[in-house]
Amino acid sequence: MKTWIILVATVLTCGVARGAFAGSSPFTPPPSAQLAPTPSPESASPAPGASSGGRELLAGWDVSLDGRVGVPSGSVRVGEKPVKGTGLGLQSDLGMGVSEVLEASLGYHFTPQNAIRLTYLQYFLNRSSTINHPFTYNGQLYGPGHVASSLGFNWLNLAYERVLFALANGGSLTGSAGVRYVSLDAVVRGNHEDFYRQELPVPIVGFRFIYPIDHRWALTADVSGGGLPRVDSLRQEGGAVYLNQTHADAGVSLTYAITPALQAHAGYHLTYFLQHEKSHEDDNRFELIDNGLQFGLKFRF
């Protein structure tokens, strides 16, 4: 948490300093973030820029830092034949009542309508609990008792974004397409199951809609998802390992422009993630459903 505070303070300081060195108030756009005029109804091209209420800027960079706190549900099962793994509930068995997420994103808008974005996300799912029944995990039988587990994972996402259309009031709909790679190492009672060894890049598509309320406030809605059907992971573990994976994310947030270059946002976020790998030797499954509150900052330059 101390690291988050330091990062937020640094970004805020940069935003204010940028406005000061530009020789204007912090609410005046810096030269690289000047806003284009709103297009006339007759214009067929999307607005290349927008006001500070959350609409898209001209070509340039943006960096964002987000945090989430959620209430997770789902399960994990790790089996090694002939022993079938026990399905362990994230809340009911492993005591994971709270999830924490840190997400960082860097985008480069090489034209007003087109951008490339690299995003890194880290999920924290580390808890201890007491299980009152025996269970099997990764071929091992465990009796009732104290259980420490770590099911956190991270993913890296690379996507191309394009403004599909712009509204007369500066709102916009942006589409994206890219790939995601997830690294999950599920640990229960010190027993590791390295899901990441069978992982493949997963195609992801998404949409983001921004609707300005006024020159400072805007409403943003995001939805994205993708997956893989049952495919050969090209790995061997007691035979060919087949992978099935699903991703879905949705959120809605309220954005406030602190300055034309610096925005704060807060809202609701839903995450669904399923990874299932199966071979003649293994049958492993991880499922996460997470409802959380999201908050963050975005700096454009």
Give the gist of this structure:
By secondary structure, this protein is mainly beta. The protein contains one helix and 16 strands. Strands 1-3-4-9-10-12-13-14-15-16 form a ten-stranded antiparallel beta barrel.
Features:
301 residues; mainly beta; ten-stranded antiparallel barrel; two-stranded antiparallel sheet; 16 strands; 7% helix
Structural write-up:
With 301 residues, the chain is mostly beta strands. Helix content is 7%, strand content 61%. The strands form two sheets. A ten-stranded antiparallel barrel has the order 1-3-4-9-10-12-13-14-15-16. A two-stranded antiparallel ribbon has the order 6-7. The N terminus is likely disordered.
Note the gap between the termini.
Answer: 26 Å
User: What would you call the shape?
Assistant: elongated
Spans where pLDDT lies below 50 across 5 or more residues: 1-57
Q: Mean of the pLDDT scores?
A: 85
* Portion of residues within helices: under 10%
Strand order of the largest sheet: 1-3-4-9-10-12-13-14-15-16
Quantity of strands, as a count: 16
**Helical/strand content category:** mainly beta
Summed up, the helix count is: 1
Encode the helix/strand succession as letters: HEEEEEEEEEEEEEEEE
Biggest β-sheet: count, sense, barrel? 10 strands, antiparallel, barrel
**What portion of residues belong to β-strands?**
over 45%
List the helices and strands and how they pair.
Blueprint: H1 2-21, E1 60-80, E2 88-89, E3 99-111, E4 114-124, E5 126-131, E6 135-137, E7 140-142, E8 145-150, E9 153-166, E10 172-188, E11 191-194, E12 202-212, E13 217-236, E14 240-257, E15 262-278, E16 282-300
Antiparallel strand pairs: 1-2, 1-3, 1-16, 3-4, 4-9, 5-8, 6-7, 8-10, 9-10, 10-11, 10-12, 12-13, 13-14, 14-15, 15-16
